[in-house]
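ERR on first pass: missing label on line 2. Operator R.T. fixed the label and resubmitted. Corrected input:
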Amino acid sequence: MSAPAPTVAALAQGLATGKFSSVELTRAYLKRIAAAQPSLNSFITVTGESALKTAAEADAARAAGRAGRLTGVPIAHKDIFCTEGVLTTCGSKMLGNFVSPYDATVVSGLRAAGTVMLGKLNMDEFAMGSSNETSYFGPVHNPWDLQMVPGGSSGGSAASVAARIVPAATATDTGGSIRQPAALCGVTGIKPTYGRCSRYGMIAFASSLDQAGLIAVSAEDAALLLGPMSGFDPFDSTSVDSPVPDYTATLGDSIEGLTIGLVREFFDEGLDANSEQHIRNAIAVYEKLGATVREVSCPNLPLSVPTYYVVAPAECSSNLARFDGVRFGHRCNSPKNLLDLYCSSRGEGFGDEVKRRIMTGTYVLSAGYYDAYYLKAQRVRQLISADFAHAFKECDLLVGPTTPAPAFRIGAKCDDPITMYLNDIYTIGANLAGLPGMSVPCGFVDGLPIGLQIVGPHFSEACMLNVAHRYQQETDWHLKTPPAFA
Amino acid sequence: MSLSRADIENIARLARLKLTEAEIPVYVDSLSKIVAFVSELNRAPTVGIEPMAHPLPGLAQRLRTDEVAETDRREVYQRNAPTVEAGLYLVPKVIE
Amino acid sequence: MEWETVIGLEIHAQLATRSKIFSGSDTAYGAEPNSQANLVDLGYPGVLPVLNGEAVRMAVRFGLAIGARIAPHSVFARKNYFYPDLPKGYQISQYELPVVARGFLDIVLDDGTRKRIGITRAHLEEDAGKSLHEGMLGMSGIDLNRAGTPLIEIVSEPDLRSAKEAVAYMKKVHTLVRYLDICDGNMQEGSFRCDANVSVRCKGSEKFGTRAEIKNLNSFRFVEKAINYEVERQIKLLESGRRVVQETRLYDSDKGETRSMRSKEEANDYRYFPDPDLLPLVIDESLIAKVKESLPELPDEKAARFVRNYDLSEYDAGVLTASREIGAFYEDVVRGVGRDPKLCANWVMGDLAAFLNKDNLEIGESKVNADALAGLVTRIVDATISGKIAKDVFEAMWASGESADAIIEEKGLRQITDTGAIEKAIEEVMAKNPGQLADYRSGKGKLFGFFVGQVMRATGSKANPAQLNDLLRKKLSG
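pass 2 clean. output:
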């Protein structure tokens, strides 16, 4: 087998028809990974041996007539998901030696569906970053231009799918960490509704915002993979007990009569003009497909970034307190006393951005500031959420840009946290309100991809995936591959 | 809104983070900027608005049945532990 | 200057669930270190808490028993601080919205009056692990088996005015939680312990003085001693013109004094906020109704019923309702005898209690069960034996496990109730003691007792005392 087929759907087809075996497919991808790793740095761990073993099991299952739709399809996991017996670092020195004794629910769901894990993908440290530059294991490079960031925090997932070195990858999204890198790498990303996928085994950054999802080439692929990742989990009190539909069943449905809202606040002065043109073109495609487009307003949305930078650090400051050098993770050498054990282990184990967020969160929760910052932000969060609820009374879905501009140069925004934070200005709102969101490739600016964001009401994944799929039937942006990795 | 060196030292102590001499002014600067940035929230009128702690409204905590569902896996769990003795995690002496 | 002591207690009672509050680990005491600490208890990366429904029902039970309001909507919050026995770096507790609010318990003071002690709140939280310092070569060893054991923290109003009141209140809570089957009350194992907030103020002053919090008191005796020590310490400070510092103190039971806790010296800033891993705890009317239905008769209700139905003093009723087991034992005895509940009470509180105490047994382990004791008391009531003989019979029952009747029969202890036989014995005694008889008849009425004693001796203490009295009086008066 020479070049691997580009989509999960095509690979599943090839496996089903016996065009190639899972072992052959897995071997081909492992080869591509090895070839790309020096330039992309998108993997932290490659689990070649176990991948081939799982692939052989998948082939045996198929031979025995026990194959499902995804049996034998290789994927990779963001290194934020715990994988039993495999290094799970969360992109941090703190967990540089951490071998998880258990699987995340998302991981076991996808394994049960027959997928083959190729390895663990690079990411911003503890998912805190928008450029993949905060990883202890070094930055990931954008396959469209190796000088550029792939976005973050799921930069390894997006870059790997874009370079076609993995067919699809899991990812997580706390403020845009799936959609933003998907947009900057020209691939399709979906962050489902908060509570749709279990958070059990996904190392927490900000518990009320974190959501597992995935990055794939197409909406169809995302629809194939989302089902096995989703559903109620008795180990996650915040997972929602509602049935998981077959997301592929509604792909191709007509979208005639669908009302699509353009959020006025998404088209602000910060939006790059060339990017805007592509978004407008995408909207025209929807009008052609019979959707009604109308403008709506979410007046509090501009406050989503400051709201997020109170809520997320607050939760992270507490979530990351468990990394203390006692039971797992980095421990400093010969601590002088208990206080030194804590301060040195944490001081050495966490990188700059993680420390910055822990301190920000500690500050906004501390006595005298709790009301002014934390409670205030939770109230504004309510307003933002209400804005969305109001918008969904007038339309079925919202669309707009995923990011203000295409990928930036590695190192360009490292000095100013605020500039970096503003990358997520269009994506954070969905996290604050727990809404599902997608990013779909919709064009290129100066050779770099940009993404169209779709945001829906709670649990509207099926509709969103279909809307993205219909667009991808009309366009081929999602099938473009970076020349260096073709 | 600007934070002082003492503020940063106090926050770092609460958060149990050892900062180097070189790091302190960097965090004084960036946290001051962040705090100034998030102070934008003060512009939003929020009188009478309930704080939102959870993104899905109206859900209630599920209750688990009171059953022991675990066996002893200490040996596996302690493989990640830096220092263990006789099944105990070791730390520098705790002084009460 | 006259000083007034002001005390509030924070009682921690471990709930008697099988599994932990947020994980499926076993809660049994005394296991190998860390063998009952699973991923959740260890605070592993990625794991999440799921609430144990039984812990919630137990908290509701407690709330209903103290006449409190059960919050229809309560919230779990994180209390953030670093300590080796706290694996996540935060304790899941309840802060602004506890599950139980505003209840009370009545205590009885020394002079017999009742005093109502307000209970501000009771909330659910997780226990921490333990640090062990012995034999660790200058290190501490952390055992997290206890981490995640469900606790209910019961916070009283500052209504207590002396160490004695504090102990009475704590005992009352101790009795109640065991009645409710929500805590085993084992203080040696730490299942029931408290922190005491102690301050003093000038008598008559409205303002509270600065308080010290004494941590981890795990016996009634320590509570009393620690508070008394602390009150004295504070008064000494104030009288010498110094001030009390607000701080956490530790009671050293060896030295009998409290001392400042170094580890808690720095002002804590717990940064409480709602735990985003847990949803609001919603308790609806139907759950409350269900729990209410399952509530046992509470100690105060039971005591009042004992006073009313069995004509007992309040004191006796209090003793007999100190635990559900004692109350049930007593009522089984009363039921078996069918009359004279006061006599039954005397036996349970007297000989039975003394023998249990001597052998260090719980009432459930008594060598004489309620049926057997009822058998004995019945023989007193039906005059088969006297109360005095009964004491010997009881001792024999305790030793042999045989029934009262078997022992009475075997040892021939049956009372003599045959008038002729008693008369015969009296006549013999009169004949042997002519001098005393003459003295009695000439007015020395005190000699009556002498004749009773002589006849009893002659009959081996078996003469029915009432009959003997009657017959003797008649015979002596000629």
